[in-house]
């Protein structure tokens, strides 16, 4: 998977809009009877269920990030792990493709937790490895006193957390440090690889882009009328026209 440039997404959407509304290679604004954002909404939310290419592309890119974090034997994943720190996605790599992966790392962290192994591929501050929340959210003041919050769990366990902090801590940071040190005593690293866990990861260890896409779209408010239309046994053309009436109103008859 490679990131689609915004210009490419725009041109693809332009062709898709034209195909939907007039079957030609282009369509005027007057011919586009429903906003494209609404068309790309899920059917249950009153849309047509057309794929949102930008969101779908991000979901596919997250599959690549997961491939890096799991014990993948692909040549690409092995090569990247030799040239970059997987926990932070920092290293001797450049290019728009790598930049796109780096920008999506916070999303991957938000939808996964870590079963700690050797701690080499897990961010100490920003991955959720000590519970459902990451330490950056649990100890925000202590994080603000960190020299450079790019440490892996393995690095902090090896050297301790204090060397990574500024010399003088505020009273609140000192209090958070004491709590963090007690928490760290409950965890030990092993020789095994860190394991990512998520409802989006299948039993075979693969990251499901389709499940993530549905999750991102699930926040839309459901429309019972649209559910009735698409759940009926009427011919597809009839259901589509009923959807147009629902979304655009009776004036659609005049336009047609």
Fold and architecture overview:
The protein is mainly alpha-helical. 50% of the residues lie in helices and 4% in strands. The chain has helices at residues 6-21, 36-39, 53-69, 75-83, 96-111, 135-138, 140-144, 153-159, 171-184, 209-217, 224-231, 236-248, 251-255; strands at 84-85, 90-91, 113-115, 195-197. The strands form two sheets. The protein has a two-stranded antiparallel sheet with strand order 1-2. Strands 3-4 form a two-stranded antiparallel ribbon. A hairpin with a 4-residue loop joins strand 1 and strand 2 (90-91). Helix 3 (53-69) packs across helix 5 and helix 11 packs antiparallel against helix 12 (236-248). The chain starts with 5 loop residues before the first helix and ends with a helix. The model has no long low-confidence stretch (mean pLDDT 88).
Summary of the model, kept short:
With 256 residues, this protein is mainly alpha-helical. 50% of the residues lie in helices and 4% in strands.
């Amino acid at each position: 998977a490679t990131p689609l440039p915004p210009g490419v997404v725009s041109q693809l959407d332009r062709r898709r809009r034209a195909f939907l509304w007039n079957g030609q290679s282009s369509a005027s604004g007057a011919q586009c009877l429903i906003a494209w954002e609404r068309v790309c909404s899920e059917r249950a939310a009153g849309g047509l269920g057309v794929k949102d290419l930008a969101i779908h592309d991000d979901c596919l890119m997250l599959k690549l990030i997961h491939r890096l974090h799991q014990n993948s034997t692909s040549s690409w994943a092995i090569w990247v792990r030799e040239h970059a720190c997987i926990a932070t996605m920092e290293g001797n790599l450049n290019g728009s493709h790598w930049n796109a992966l780096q920008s999506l790392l916070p999303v991957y962290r938000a939808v996964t937790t870590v079963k700690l192994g050797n701690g080499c591929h897990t961010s100490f501050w920003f991955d959720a490895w000590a519970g459902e929340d990451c330490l950056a959210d649990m100890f925000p003041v202590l994080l603000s006193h960190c020299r450079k919050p790019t440490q892996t769990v393995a690095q902090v366990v090896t050297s301790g957390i204090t060397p990574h902090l500024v010399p003088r801590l505020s009273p609140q940071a000192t209090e958070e440090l004491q709590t963090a040190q007690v928490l760290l005593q409950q965890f030990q690293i092993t020789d095994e690889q860190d394991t990512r866990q998520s409802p989006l990861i299948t039993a075979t260890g693969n990251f499901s882009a389709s499940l993530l896409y549905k999750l991102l779209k699930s926040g839309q408010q459901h429309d019972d009328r649209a559910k009735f239309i698409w759940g009926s046994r009427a011919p597809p053309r009839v259901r589509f026209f009923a959807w147009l009436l629902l979304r655009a109103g009776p004036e659609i008859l005049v336009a047609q």
